[in-house]
Amino acid sequence: MYSQYKKSGLEWFGDIPNHWEVVSLKKNLENIIDYRGKTPTKVDSGIFLVTAKNIQNGSIQYEKSKEYVIPSEYSNIMSRGTPKIGDVLLTTEAPLGEVANVDCSDIALAQRIIKLRGNSKLNNYFLKYFLLSDAFTQYLNTFATGSTALGIKGSKISMLKIILPPFEEQKKIINFLNQKTAEIDALIADKERLIELLEEKRQAVITETITKGLDSNVKMKDSGVEWIGEVPEHWEVKKMKYLFNIKKRIEGLDNPQILSVTQKGIKVKDISTNEGQLAANYDKYQTVDPGDFVMNHMDLLTGFIDVSIFYGVTSPDYRVFKITNENYNKDYFLYYFQMCYYLRIFYKFGQGVASFGRWRLSTDEFNSFPIPIPSVKEQREIIEFINNNEEYSKDMIKDTKETINKLKEYRQSIIYEAVTGKIDVSDHDVPVESDPEEVSQ
Q1: Is residue 308 part of a domain?
Q2: Contacts of 137 (CB under 8 A, 6+ apart)
Q3: Are 106 and 127 contained in the same domain?
């Protein structure tokens, strides 16, 4: 901590070091440019267009959205001012308040982005961290407007106030935060990779047990299906049409539950919110009983399948079917079908126009689709094994996500404490090869 503090005069910032100032943002900017109203023509290649979608977690994420503008139109698109390395970008809507420094000057800037450039008293990289702080986010939100999505104009942003340490202290804060956030980001990346590995292992366990069983010493045979490979010798491989009956029952129910298949299973749609895709009426929707399989076979890329626990109706475009042998374990077949979505196996047998989200599994392909069939006893044992592994995997993933959230909270607290002077980093020794802002100037 610093030896002496004073009131900042703004509740979001609290007390600040005695020698720091609370100043007008506008008076400490060389320029501020709002690109609202500029709508460039998009092309497949050219100069990269940075949109609000690209600005996340303090940097420009080029992979999040790839849009380009025609090079010959660049000067017109950026007539209000071209970006310079180090400039600060702030999103003004959808989402509001994402911040990044420009790391490449050969870019165009889209609407919903404001560009700020500090003057000789305000380091752009300090400004980025300040705008990233929770204190500024809360402050910014009080000036934002909008019923569906909060937004703010550049004219309002320029009226806001910021905390301004001496310029040399700004550099020390930048160096401190560059190091600390890099360390935290590396830990977060490791945890995110761990989640990916846990998900991969989870799916590998399902695939192995569903198609090979639990006995590693059992004699195997060729299934006759390339992507299934070998199966235990005593298993059968049957076509869907011998195991399931397709249903198409339309009853025109009064005030039915509307069921939708999502990546997280079958959900009851709340039609009172008017959110998502809604039908004019549901008279032609097909009836679903508890225990029915419901499959979005019209979109084999992002669709899914689940067993319903609800009584209701669902889209006439979905496929509803029922198992013929009640002794069979529904969960065994559900894991098998969901595996076929995850591994894009259904997709290989689809037809249609994938670019329009219409890559469907025809009735003939559905009826002919092969399934390995263990005994009822083995089905039960396989499901018990998978469920135990699922519980372990989900617990591990949940714990890892909680750790990530805590690391993100810690990252935010470090930024807040440094840019508002709650901690003194002036003695923090960080080797600095160069100041990227000074290089750009």
Answers
A1: yes
A2: 97
A3: yes
Residues 6+ apart with CB under 8 A from 399: none
Phi-psi region at 81: left, alpha or beta (left = phi > 0; alpha = psi -120 to 50) = left
Which residues make Cβ contacts (< 8 Å) with residue 417, sequence separation at least 6? 423
Q: Are 71 and 139 within one domain?
A: yes
For tokens 């380091």, the residue is 123
Half-sphere exposure of 401 (CA within 13 A, CB side): 9
Q: What is the pLDDT of residue 271?
A: 65
> What is the extent of the structural domain holding 390?
167-224+379-441
27's CB contacts (< 8 A; 6+ apart) are: none
pLDDT of the residue at 356? 56
pLDDT given at position 36: 84
Q: In what order do the strands lie in the sheet with 258-262?
A: 265-269, 258-262, 312-314, 286-288
| Cα distance between residue 316 and residue 305, in whole Å | 15
Which residues in the chain show pLDDT less than 70? 271-281, 354-357, 429-441
Is the CB of residue 158 less than 8 Å from the CB of residue 65?
A: no
Phi and psi (nearest 5°) for 191?
A: -70, -40
Q: What is the CATH number of the domain that holds 210?
A: 1.10.287
pLDDT score recorded for residue 279:
57
For 67-77, b/e burial (b = at least 16 CB within 10 A) is: bbbbeeebeeb
pLDDT of residue 273: 57
| Cα 341 to chain centroid, rounded | 20
Q: How far apart are CA 62 and CA 149, in angstroms?
A: 24
pLDDT of 278 reads: 55
User: CA 321: distance to chain centroid?
Assistant: 32
43 touches 108 (CB < 8 A): no
Token pair of 153 as six digits:
């104009």
CB atoms within 10 A of CB 384: 13
